[in-house]
């Protein structure tokens, strides 16, 4: 009988013990994915009241808020020249047919210009349970493009018989003269290289994310199964999504776990009852 009672007590103790297993849970923000947000305050929450166990502990918690620019219209300004430079004329090619000469000179001209497209920077600051949790903003982007053009060739020259002096008489081309026979032609041209830098709108996507280690944030989750959040938006944005990732472990309710002294008294009581039954059976 003692063996049977001991087994019964052990079984009762095991049944009172609670088992727990960690489980990943993802909560979605109360503001719908893809919602447009204007400038100002936007309040929301992660509500886990329907999915979180009644009693649990948090092994880890992290949050992610993803934003995208709403691609508002730009105001494009006029192109402004910001720089200019010109090189020297250089002989690029010559031709002689036994009697006539032809010379081609080319120089490079470089223009730099900018085109401004005005927009606005957009950003957001996040707080969880009233505590600052991070911020982010769109970035200013620029692009650069080059365009090379030729303005054609301008003819400059003369011919005479039976000969003429060949002069280099155009600015930096002056380098002397000599007598030649036949006719000649000089051609001068400019090659333009235009570099245009365009200042684009503040655009792109960004995220505010991090781990939650602040105990006040975790306490709100533990006590109410919810986590309030607030976004202060500068400009206007699209909230792509908001997620709260949790790793939680379910706990048994405190009332369902007896004190060790209670379990001991229960066992002693069962043993006492068994002893009384044995004594009553041994009497004549």
UniProtKB/TrEMBL annotation:
<dbReference type="InterPro" id="IPR013424">
    <property type="entry name" value="Ice-binding_C"/>
</dbReference>
<feature type="domain" description="Ice-binding protein C-terminal">
    <location>
        <begin position="256"/>
        <end position="279"/>
    </location>
</feature>
<keyword id="KW-0732">Signal</keyword>
<feature type="signal peptide">
    <location>
        <begin position="1"/>
        <end position="22"/>
    </location>
</feature>
<dbReference type="Pfam" id="PF07589">
    <property type="entry name" value="PEP-CTERM"/>
</dbReference>
<protein>
    <submittedName>
        <fullName>PEP-CTERM sorting domain-containing protein</fullName>
    </submittedName>
</protein>
């Amino acid at each position: 009988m003692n063996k049977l009672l001991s087994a019964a007590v052990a079984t009762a103790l095991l049944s009172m013990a609670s088992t727990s297993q960690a489980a990943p849970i993802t909560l979605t923000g109360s503001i719908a994915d893809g919602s447009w947000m204007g400038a100002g305050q936007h309040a929301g929450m992660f509500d886990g009241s329907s999915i979180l166990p009644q009693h649990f502990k948090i092994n880890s918690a992290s949050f992610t808020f993803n934003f995208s620019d709403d691609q508002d219209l730009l105001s494009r300004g006029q192109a402004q020249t910001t720089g200019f430079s010109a090189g020297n004329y250089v002989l690029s090619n010559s031709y002689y047919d036994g009697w006539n000469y032809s010379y081609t000179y080319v120089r490079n001209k470089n223009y730099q210009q900018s085109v401004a497209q005005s927009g606005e920077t957009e950003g957001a600051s996040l707080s969880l349970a009233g505590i600052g949790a991070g911020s982010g903003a769109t970035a200013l982007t620029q692009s650069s493009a080059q365009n090379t053009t030729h303005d054609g060739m301008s003819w400059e020259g003369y011919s005479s018989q039976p000969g003429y002096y060949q002069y280099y008489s155009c600015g930096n081309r002056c380098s002397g003269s000599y007598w030649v026979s036949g006719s000649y032609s000089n051609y001068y041209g400019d090659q333009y290289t235009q570099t245009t830098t365009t200042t684009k709108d503040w655009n792109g996507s960004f995220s505010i994310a991090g781990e939650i280690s602040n105990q006040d944030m975790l306490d709100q989750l533990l006590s109410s199964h919810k986590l309030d959040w607030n976004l202060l938006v500068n400009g206007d944005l699209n909230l792509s999504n908001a997620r709260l990732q949790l790793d939680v472990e379910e706990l048994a309710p405190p009332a369902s776990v007896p004190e060790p002294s209670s379990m001991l008294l229960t066992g002693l009581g069962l043993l006492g009852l068994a002893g009384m039954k044995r004594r009553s059976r041994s009497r004549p």
